[in-house]
Amino acid sequence: MNSSKHTELANHAWSVADLLRGDYKQSDYGKVILPFTVLRRLECVLEPTREKVAEIAEQHKDSGIDPDRFLRRASGHSFYNKSSLTLKKIAADPQNAAQNLQVYVGAFSDNARGVLDRFEFAQQIKRLDGAGLLYQVIGKFTDLDLRPEVVPNHNMGYIFEELIRRFAEQSNETAGEHFTPREVIQLMVRLLVAPDGDALQLPGTVRTVLDPACGTGGMLSAMDDLITELNPDATVEVYGQELNPESWAICRSDLMIKGQNPENIAFGNSFSDDGHARKSFDYMLANPPFGVEWKKVKEEVEAEHKSLGEAGRFGAGLPRINDGSLLFLQHMISKMKPVDVNGGGGSRLAIVFNGSPLFTGAAGSGESEIRRWILENDWLEGIVALPDQLFYNTGISTYFWILTNRKNPDHKGKVVLLDARDQWQKMRKSLGDKRKELGKDHIATVVKLYGEALAVAGDAEHPLHGKVKVFSNEDFGYQRITVERPLKLRFEVTEETLAALEASKAIQKLPQVSVMFDAFESMEVTSWATKQEAWLALKDAVVQAGGTWPTGAPFNKALRDAIGVRDPEGEVQLIKGQPEPDTEHRDYENVPMGEDVEEYLKREVHPHVQDAWIDHSKTKIGYEIPFTRHFYAYQPPRPLAEIDAELKQLESQIQQLLGVIAQ
């Protein structure tokens, strides 16, 4: 089925909006169109066995035996409908349309009815009936041919995604929170599965797949399709979790139709209510929303972090509250299968991120600690940079992170960075922010390049050598050192320093404060090179004025902070015989992991500041992945002569145009 057919069927379903206009707001159109599309699809799938199911239901009506098992077998699916009603019959009886539709929906098996309940379908039936629109809407959908032989499951996904995209546009929601462009998914699953191609073709292969932010299930379907393409006899069990009720319902109905277990798709927030706790999976993949805060589940996440530590999902660290991307990654890592003594088992996972998780957060921050945990455990296999304007809801650059706990021997201790930002073609028609797409050739090129990354990176003659770089895990680590300089002061009594002294709370509490300030203001010598000289002179002035010289650390600190003035040639201040650091001149340097920080200080700092030193107690280990920096190619500016010639040419053209106008 080509894309024009998808659009034609989606247009037919969306044409119901013409009936809803006036009685429904535009943002509510999808609340009617999406559940009716799901209902019509379920009906078309069950049509060949409808009469047989109704017959068996009638036979067991008063038997006292639960007929569920027999009805499933008769329908040929994991769901069924016991009623002899159809949408066509319901539309033909406008007076009883609401009652008959409720009876029809109630006759579905529990799993199918649960899908429609997530759409709050009963409320929409009541609302449509009250507006006198119900039978007309039903009539529209009876003309929509969604039989599996006409619209295969894979193609039905495109129709649902197109409807969701339109719904999101109408309601100002973010379409990208619901699904990912199919060609992006195709690249993602191929990169994830490529190293396992041979193993997947073995007889009796069983693989489990998880998407903790599964949306409408596009990624799960693509993984199922790819694995069964490699091995038609393979068993693929897909699992997911979704927070959006409409997306969850569509994903669940898709699995029912395909014969997968719909109970594997959990509803709710993956962080606060893990629908697959204590389970592990062979493959995991996700496209979590970019830059979405996790404030709603802050209490639960922080409680798990503190109480369970590394025994829980979030032991490595917590990112800042406004972006939960790295929480999703930790959640997925917690579900990796362990590797056995023979090297078997283990998992592979892929996740879509924007640029933020690569470098956000200084050494010691939650983000840096999560990166450190991943790299020091040697789980990060590679990062692939994608073209911008590839997603429906954002034009920014995005990246695939690919992780595994069973790296090939030649990949151990290494990370592949692959720049695929130029692998795209322009779309004939933009969809939201999506103006570019990946063609089949682009996908094939990137998959091949990723598989041969080590060889390409080592071959300077390879035409794509500049697109691949391989680093050791330690290359992304650094030591954040604190460079201190001594506090150097001279001491002065001026209007400014006396005002600062007067504002000090420690001074305000002293007795005879006025006597002290009068003594200071009457002094002839008001500047000293050392603290000792200053304190002797100030004390003498106070005593001569009849006052008492205060004692105690708070007074001495307040006095020094007020009358001490920073001076490069001033006296070095000491604490217990050691130079006191000047907080205003404190600096931080990132030193590559493994490099001697003292040697770095001598080489990079001492030529400029000889008395600087490192406070080793403040040194922190950090990790960041500056992807763009590693692929930066210097572009020299054009020669001035060339620019000057171009300007003169433009001036000449302008003069000619002005001459034409003047004539």
Automatic annotation (TrEMBL):
Single GO term (MF): DNA binding
DNA methylase adenine-specific domain residues: 154-453
Record domain N6 adenine-specific DNA methyltransferase N-terminal: where: 9-141
Keyword S-adenosyl-L-methionine belongs to the record: yes
Cross-referenced Pfam families: HsdM_N, N6_Mtase
Gene3D superfamilies recorded: 1.20.1260.30, Vaccinia Virus protein VP39
Record family assignment: Belongs to the N(4)/N(6)-methyltransferase family.
Keyword rRNA-binding belongs to the record: no
Residues in coiled coil: none
A single BP term in Gene Ontology: DNA restriction-modification system
Enzyme Commission identifier(s): 2.1.1.72
Enzyme class: transferase
Source species of the chain: Streptomyces phyllanthi
Name of the protein in its database record: site-specific DNA-methyltransferase (adenine-specific)
Reactions catalysed, as given in the entry: a 2'-deoxyadenosine in DNA + S-adenosyl-L-methionine = an N(6)-methyl-2'-deoxyadenosine in DNA + S-adenosyl-L-homocysteine + H(+)
Entry-linked PANTHER family: SLR6095 PROTEIN, TYPE I RESTRICTION ENZYME MJAVIII METHYLASE SUBUNIT
SUPFAM superfamilies associated with the record: S-adenosyl-L-methionine-dependent methyltransferases (SSF53335)
Superkingdom of origin organism: Bacteria
Keywords for the protein's UniProt record, in alphabetical order: Methyltransferase, Restriction system, S-adenosyl-L-methionine, Transferase
